[in-house]
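User: My advisor, Dr. K., asked me to get a structural model of this assembly before our group meeting. I'm new to this, so sorry if the format is off. These are the inputs:
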Amino acid sequence: MKVFWAFIKKEFFHILRDRRTLFILIGMPIVQILIFGYAVTNEFKGANIAVYDQAQDESSLDFIHQLQASGHFQLLQSPGEIEAAFQSAAIKMAVVIPANFGQHLYPGQSTQLQLLTDGTDPNTAVTLTQYAGLIIQQFQHQGRAERQAPPILVENKMVYNPALKSVYLFVPGVMALILMLVSAMMTSLTIAREKELGTMELLLVSPLPPFLIIAGKVIPYIILSLLNALLILGVGVYVFGVPLIGSFWLLIGVCMLFIVLALALGILISTKAETQQAAMLVSLMGLMMPTILLSGFLFPIESMPLLLQWISKIIPAKYFILLLKDIMLKGSGWYYIWTESLVLFGMAFFLLMASWKNFKIRLT
Amino acid sequence: MIQVEGLSKRFGDFTAVNAISFSVKKGEIFGFLGANGAGKTTAMRMLTGLSRPSDGNATVAGYDVYTQTEAIKRRIGYMSQKFSLYEDLTVRENIALFGGVYGMKRRRIKEKMDELLGQLQLMDKRNHLVGSLPLGWKQKLAFSVSLFHEPEIVFLDEPTGGVDPITRRQFWEMIYEAAHRGITVFVTTHYMDEAEYCDKVSIMVAGKIAAMDSPQQLKQQFEVDSMDDVFVNLARG
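Assistant: The format is fine. Below is the predicted structure of the whole assembly, which you can bring to the meeting.
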């Protein structure tokens, strides 16, 4: 046991003395969550818009006021010509209110509004029109409630993420990405490094059983992965206000399962890759890319071509992200998540067996 | 100390080591020579318990290479062709790690470490990273570390590769000293002048031992002046 401890200590020395490794382990999670949380987000706060108000009456001013009050838009004072403002990218959207806006609104006739958006950035354009659409709908109901019952109310309500906050969805995604990175890629790198430098040989001729050699290399990364999971969770909950409705321990349990799975993948890669470069390439192409693209993290699986949907079924991160969303946002208990958990468990078991077998083969 | 009889290793159709036999006595320096790809490394891997032989018998320090590899591993030291310490650990950490890996008690490690650092004149460098030491020092340190747990046999796989002649000489003095203390030395090398320092030399050609004797006897047998010529004669067939 003391031997084992000395061995783990050595692995920590390796990690702490290599700045690059240290940055990937500690810096990356923070950078990732901040980037995804703040920058790469589909929601808008204070997007610059221009309003061309031809009506200039009570109701149009009221409407403009509501647009501003939503917090999504910032009215640009004296935007000049709309065309020029778009050209210079000063505004993202322009609202044109016709002169007869107020007159037609109150008698319950149909009235018109024009929303102009910058089509060169379609994602932004779509999101902004959706936001504006919601505000317009609200405004309509207010105005009509005084006089007559509104015809048919179409209520759009999002459950579990009512504010449509994209950061809610990024936290599980970043978690999957970082745990994959730390557990799988870093483990495969560290084992490949010992092989490349020839020190693996040295450990193998020592009386340490092979199982302990691998365990000693992997345990520091388990600890670091868990710390990273807590870090991301902490930033998500306290900085971005992501709810954690379900059980904290269930969440940690699911994280552990995913970490073990990722470690097994890392060991499997390292038994095949002879150099750090090879291990790095395989990890990036074989693990990171599918985790980012096919797990439902950035792109919804439902809108993928059928072939990719099938492939996504074997991406562990897909199940992990589902589990995290269930536990964090819906507060699901064990009863609701056992199928996904079982899939992850099966994958982890299979990968552990495969990597162990491969390691044995290499020995003889 | 080492008894080998008809030891073979086959990878599919390819026979890397073909029924080699030899024995090494306690305290002997045994030179294991051969061109690249002659099967030296494979033979050495079988003796150190890294690779399972396909055929034949062998014992190392009295233990069987098929069934008692754990016991063998505890009694041998190993230093490989590639540099075999951790560059990002300090001198002390490296020594402590390998002492620990071989199950030495902490106090024993401490005592022996001070002694060793004094001998190697590395006392003032004990907290330096090994990566910052000159190659010659690294290699001497690596050799000392391979002997640190007092093995009965030490396997050296091309230990002096890339080292200057003076350091090589010093290195061989360390090997002599180890042999003098009763440690059996099994060494592979490419330098034929080093072969002259060995008590007994075997030369492998294409998986077989083509010649085995003391350097003196081999030179007489082939009627040449140096081991270099002996080797060239054999390797050409």
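One thing worth pointing out at the meeting: The longest strand of chain B covers residues 14-24.

User: Perfect, thanks a lot.
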